[in-house]
Structures
1.
Amino acid sequence: MQFTQEQVTKLAPDDASAKAGKALASNSKWVLRCVHEKALWGDCQGSGKNPYRTIIDLTNLAFKCSCPSRKFPCKHGLGLLFLYAANPNVFSVEKELPEHVGEWLGKRAERAESKPVQVEKAAPDEQAQQKRIEAREKKVRGGIEELRFWMKDVVRTGIMNVPQDPYQFNQNIIARMVDSQAAGLANQLRRINKINFYQEGWQKALIKQLSKTYLITEAYENIEALNTELQSDIKTLIGWNTPKEDVLNSTGIKDEWLILSISNEEEGNLRTEKIWLFGLGCQKFALILNFYAGAQLSGHAFVEGGTVKGELAFYPSTTPLRGLMKEPFEINGRFIQPGIRSSISTLLQDVTSKFSLNPFVSEIPFILSSGRIALNGKNWYIIGDDGSGLRLSNNEEQCWTILSISKGKMFPCFGIYENESYNILALWPSNRYYSIK
Amino acid sequence: MSLQNDIIKTALLGTDKIQFQLPEELSDIKDGITTKQEDKEDAFLKSAAIAFIYEESGQEAKDSINTIPECPDDTREELSASTSQHLEDALLSKDEVFFEYLLTKTLEADKTVSSKLVPLLLNRAIEQKRKAEKLIAVCGKTGEWLCSLNPNWQRLTLKNEEQIDWETGSLEDRKLFLARLRTTDPDKALQLLQAVFEQENANNRAEFLEILEIGISVKDEAFLLEALKDKSKKVKEVALKLLQPLLGTEINNLYINYFLDAVSIREERSLLILKKKVIEIDPAVLPSDDLFRYGIEKVSSVKGVDDQLFWLSQILSFIDPSALAERYQISQDEWFKLSIEHKQISVFIPYLAAAAIRFRNKPLAKNLLAHEEAFREELLLILSEYERYEWYDKYLESRFPIILGLLLNDHYSIIPQQLAERVVKRLAVNPYVITQPIYTRLALSLPVGIKSFLSKYIEEGADDYQKRYFSNQASNMLRYIELREGLTF
């Protein structure tokens, strides 16, 4: 598997690691550099007496290093991979794996095969559990009641004065939702803070978000009347979690998944990583969400634009999207362009069908087989073959980058439909993958 | 749209002031809401939510969007993906030295950067005006095309004569216009300047006048003499600076004539049988007052040097040495030999060096460089890069910072192995004499053959802080040499 410098850079947990890794991508730093079809290994002379022993699993990208760094991958792992990406000829090709490499790869394979999906260690005390659920349910219902009062108050007096203090406007009620264990509703309310109150159109965005949140509470009050999947969607929107184990225990889809985009959003001390996937066989989209607190680093080595082979299990939903990758899986660095025929009108049809199943769906992933971007006044659009277009929600800087990459020509792209606009996250002009950050 | 407007109107003013009703086409939903209605706010919020979903579900793509014309194809090839990645890394990690190197090499190879980087480079061109031309050049057609579309980048487009308005343009634009015209048509440029000269302010007059140095000739004399009468001291100084060395002008003739009158070459006997030429200065020849009016200082400011010798030395810097040798009917080398043999040579040397630099006289520059006390960096610049190496060898130890500065030129020429080893050895002894970015810059000019030589310093035990520091720098330099090796242009 051959990597590009760009791919290796994206594997770095932070900029400092990428920089330090590049500094180590020099022959002189490595007293040993070897490659085998399954692994890459080398000894890097650090400041200590003994060199650091670094191993990279090429079959299922993973790193191991004897250095004390807590970063993953560490600068040695990155440095070795940078060196391999830039100059594979300096590595001696080995037919046999040395003992320490073979041992680590063997352990990894063994662990992957034998890793059972975590089952509950002991049967829970059902009565206590039921009590806890009831107590939470009571708290959530109390919170919802308060939220509905608050929203009614807002629309009774009018939203005209909200832009005067848009941040403070909803802080108390968000805190109240957190207290009442309705984190999902708190997230819905936080979306209000992302509205640009200095830009025309804030009125619609605000009332749309308020009314949608209200409708979620209404749906929760009548949840018994809904089908199981929609019940699950509503519960998730309120803040009830589906246990990871339940998802991993369900049957997933085995496929080769194209890693369309990896993006990060930070709020407070929490970083949310979004990994968008597309099943090359099943033609389904999936979203893996990872949450990291503080300086916690990503624990995977997915390569944007590459693929991952394995079974993916979805969280229950009328429009399944969020999922979990079951182990073992195989990461591949080769770029693949999805072969899909679609247009802006099929995107809008898809939006309609998704809404008909689940009116609360917010992010709709979509691959456009051909589009070009255009600027009308101050608004950017993606235009299809037929000349019709959809507004882009990418920021100004991103739009100029997309225009520069595509040179004003048609290109296939992947993006997310949300709030009547499309956000391009990746594109493949001239069969090359570019991610937009 | 009217449904949306009604919702927004109600939301803005509040349900206390205005009532909202769902339209008839949503009567089914409306009935459902009404039966379970808690109050008017409950009805409004539910109705609004449903109306928004209803509208979004049936939305159609917007048509009649103006398309952007496609970017014209570039005749130049794009950099390879890996080199492009190095350029992006250098740019984002603020590795200015390596970024500058990659930029220069891309231009030399007549290639363009990856189109993904173009917006980043254009933004940088806005921030760093001095580098703008180079940055725009590597952006190729994509850059030009984006500049024509983005108002922020439009000002980066290089202006040509037709686009610059000589009368209303900015000072920089007008200077650019005049300089370009002066290169192609010096007479026309002079006429243009003459026409507006008096209406310009003193600073502009001085700045425009300086541009006349491009393609200067006797034809400019009348205008420059007129400028000597200007009210502004700065303008007068510029005009005089241009006239003094200009061959065939009244001032330059005044200088030459006095020099020829006062200095003669006489043959004298040496050891009875040998004849030897010597410079003889006639103290009886006195200059006219005009000489001092035209920039020659009257009173000697050099201790032990009489006024006449001081005048002649000053004049020496304004006369082309080859023209002077011709007037005395001797060779340039001979003229230099006579000057150097003069008992007060130390007075002449700086002025001879100034003449060599001003008239870009290579033989004189080489003769002067042979004398340690005559060394000036500008003398080396007159020589070709190949010719300089001889002098780099000679002056490396005594003038290390200057020689290193010249070795690290804008063309990133590779330093010959032997000289490179001497540079590295010199730095190993005193590693703090240059900074980290200079080490990086040096690595980009070191020959690949030096790798094993550098490795010795890396492997060597670091027993003191200076050696440790140099070992790190050597390792860093080695990495850049390897990086350079892996680049494809």
Note: The CA atoms of residues 54 and 65 of chain A lie 4 Å apart.
2.
Amino acid sequence: MPLQEKQLDPALLDAVDVFGGLDPSGKDEALAAAHWRKLETGERAFEQDQEADAFYVLSAGRLKVTQVTPEGQEIIIRYIGPKEMFGCVAVCGGLTYPGTATAVTDSWALGWTRATIGALAQTYPGIALNAMRTMGGRLQDTQSRLREMQTERVERRIAHGIARLVAQAGRRVEGGILIDFPVSRQDIAELTGTTLHTVSRTLSAWQERGVVELGRQKLTVRDPHALVVIAEDLPLKE
Amino acid sequence: MDGHLKETEFQDAGLTAQSIVGEVMRRHPATLPVFLRRHMHCPGCPMAPFMTLAEAAENYRTDLGALLAELNAACR
């Protein structure tokens, strides 16, 4: 479906956090100060490390925001849908865009240059507060994602540690592989450079999933494949 | 399990459902590409010395008969 020229939904700004609580005349002023950008599929609204000169609200279409790691690998940070903001860093004093925004379908966006939004925020201080709130929300997302990644890393370390014990002292028994010497949670914590608490929590969760079985000083790997899937972060087959 | 391998040592590879994955790869390195092609992570896996081909096939949701046929063919 080809996009109409400037698909302007008059209610567009009502749904945008940064303009929340703005009176109708303020919204008109904000709209008047905006510029339109049409983005063809594959076109970039801005690139990582480019000067953050404008922020945008997507009117129609879909964008992906990606970052390139120092190793050259591209990772997707988030997808942007209609009524969502992107390039927020331009409102909050960031100098460069932290990622690249690319249209994944033909898209229309409403943009405000840094100068324009600065002037609007002088008149309507609510805009600055809203921007802070939005950035705060994204920071929280980022932090919980970081926590997930840390947890995953520790789980992988523990799984690797147990796999090493299996390679060293595993003995095939009915329904699994027994680690054939007395091994405590504390031993595993020391082997994997983590805490006793973390090992206990992780092993209990794995026991519930049937991956391992813990006895007193006795560890049996019930589902060796599942342990390797965790250790190696293998893709799961359905 | 060990008995099985001894028994078939001097025959054609004769890999069966109960053959141990680690042994199969050690004795018949020509089988490695079969695992790799099937996206099985057995080569280098610390669990391989403990698992049978039947278990490996089950873990990777792959057809045991087809796997055995390919592995035996690779040994010839």
Note: Chain A touches chain B at residues 163-164, 166-167, 170, 172, 177, 221, 224-225, 227-228, 232, 234, 237 (CB under 8 Å).
